[in-house]
Amino acid sequence: MINLNSGDTIISVKDMAKTFHTGKGVKKKEVKALRNVSFDLKKGRAMALVGESGSGKSTVARLLTKMHDHCSGEVLFKGQDISDIKTRQALVDYRKQIQMIFQDPYGSLNPAHTIYHHIARPLLTHKHVKNHAEAKIRVNELLEMVELDAESTAPKFPHQLSGGQRQRVSIARAVAVGAEVILADEPTSMLDVSIRLDVLDLLKRLKDEQGFTFLYITHDIATARYFAEEIAIMYQGQIVEYGDTGSVIDNPQHPYTKLLLSAIPDPYVSFEEATETGAELLAKANQIREASFEPVSTYHQFKGNHFYGAMDKDLGDLFNL
Ligand SMILES: Nc1ncnc2c1ncn2[C@@H]1O[C@H](COP(=O)(O)OP(=O)(O)OP(=O)(O)O)[C@@H](O)[C@H]1O
Ligand SMILES: [Mg+2]
Asked: pTM of the predicted model, to two decimals?
């Protein structure tokens, strides 16, 4: 897959595929969760991964952190093939650099431990600090960095914080571990609407001011546009369209991208206009889904850094809305 954006590539994914085998006997099933997924993550930039439920977004993140191994293809982290990471220590070292932030921050925090403990522990185990005195100073810095009041927050337990505050703690912890790449899997979708933007703004500052690299998994096109320089649209384990976020959202080329975007009201289009094209498109939704399931073998360049999966020409014409 061609990527025209300059910058240092931290992660390069090429033709990554993953099939899950579940059940036994007659219930045996094969799920092709990912089929030939390719993309690059560049330092200090974000790529949004957007697609409906079950399209394979979280699987991408799980393979990048080696929670599962990919079946075929290649993932390079700073040029190193992650399949070569074999020993426990090598895995620990790798995972320091690439951290996940989940939808539910409560699930990843231990209710029995204070916030101080959550952040000090990785600092001490990874020897980023020498002792508790140093840890205390660094924990305070990290809490301030995620805009929490250090003195009052450090002694608290997770249940004493709001959802947004807990998500800030998990961000501070990812930074404490020494992450350069953060895989954020719907990091704001469980938070109150009123504080989602604040948390997203924090992630944006980490990217723009401190050079953190993000894979931003979301259902929300508006936040993808706000946060991520690049976007990849996934359907049934494949990337059907990718490139500069504004270009893909403003000029979607693949019928599936058009379908996905048609489900989202555009503030610049009048309601009558939106429902007209929306209704027309939704009537074709099943046909589009079926056609989009076909393997993408090549990508066409629309313009600059904007590519879309090639489809059968006749179908392309049919869905040319
Ligand atoms: N451990 C697993 N075992 C079997 N099947 C799995 C496993 N993990 C994921 N899958 C399947 O792989 C496909 C992709 O799942 P994935 O969780 O990556 O989707 P997603 O895009 O993150 O969806 P959502 O938006 O709902 O989080 C789904 O069909 C899912 O059921
Ligand atoms: Mg998911």
From this structure: 0.91
